Amino acid sequence: MGKAAAQKTRGRYNGWGTRRERLRDMFVGRLQEKRQHGCRTPKELRILTAMSSLIHIQAQDESRVSAGEKETLLLAALGKLRSVIVALSGGADSAYLAWAAHQALGARAISVTALSPSFSAHDRTMVEEFVRSTGVRHEFLETHEMENPAYRANAADRCYFCKDELFAVLDELARARGIAAVAYGVNADDSLDFRPGHRAASEHQVLAPLLDAELCKAEIRELSQRAGLPTWDRPASACLASRIPYGTEVTPERLSLVEQGEAALRDLGFRQFRVRLHDQLARVEIAPEEMPRALQPEMAAAIAVRLRASGFAYVALDLQGYRQGSLNEGLRPAGSQGAD
Question: What is the CATH classification number for the domain harbouring 321?
Fold first, then answer.
């Protein structure tokens, strides 16, 4: 998709209104309803009139827009596109966006999943199950970020090079098929974290419909459940490279080791976890609610046996448990959340 065409598409897409305008119009509409039904005192009317003129929308105002209303805005915005490619990783966000695009555009929306050594076999299975259950139009294609030395070097901006490769491939596919736009599943919560991939999306002028609709993760899960999507409660996920500390080279061998370790934990019945690779040591993060089970002597021994069989020399259980973006902890202020 050419730069001029992408700019034109984004301009049309954003034409449904800014955040403040949408929320203000919605509030004014509710104010008019109150007036029609009659306010009990002049004071109530004065207060409501004053509130309708506010320009700055604070957190309490945002709560006035329900998840369902945001979904209506999302579908309306997607429906204005001539056609779109959705980058589908199989997580809750991208799956919901793929479903929404399919609802709004039918066959004019195509979801595409990139295959590379950092994309696990488990994630591919999840994508295939989602596609079968929803009937969205879908394709797999290969990306080659491993050929980029800057990606393999695994600096703090590794994600930028991965997403740059992904969006370049999707741009080429869009040009070849005459598809108007490319979109991805970043949500309103993601702006709170260090995510270099957003820079690549901006450079490629990729649309962010969930972010534009101000949908947060909890709302996406709620709406996905309403729609009957199998991904509504899928645990947070990210590419396998996110398990390798910055500065340690990303190699197919290391990615495979992490994948085997996480498959072992999945076989043991754990649901939310990460295997962080530190040379020959596996630092295992398990969700706090699952930690008591992991700490049982028999289970702890089973974890050690299974991960050593996967190829790790040492196995350690992180007592802080699973938390998103633990490898980003040295990059961000205390208290912020990470991408993985």
Answer: 3.30.300.10
What are the pLDDT digits (tens) for 319-339?
A: 999 987 666 666 555 444 444
> 38 lies in which domain range?
18-62
Asked if residues 230 and 130 have their Cβ atoms less than 8 Å apart, the reply is yes
**Measured between alpha carbons, how far is 71 from 54 in angstroms, rounded to an integer?**
24
pTM of the model: 0.78
Give the residue from 241, 154, 160 showing the smallest Cα distance to 203. 160
Angle between helices 92-105 and 67-79 (to 10 degrees): 60
Gap between the Cα atoms of 157 and 336, Å rounded: 18
Strands of the 109-115 sheet, one edge to the other: 138-142, 109-115, 84-87, 181-183
Sign of CA dihedral 300, 302, 306, 309: positive
Beta bridge partners of 112: 87, 139
Q: Which residue has the tokens 């596609």?
A: 131
53 and 89 together in one domain: no
Query: Are residues 29 and 9 both part of a single domain?
Result: no
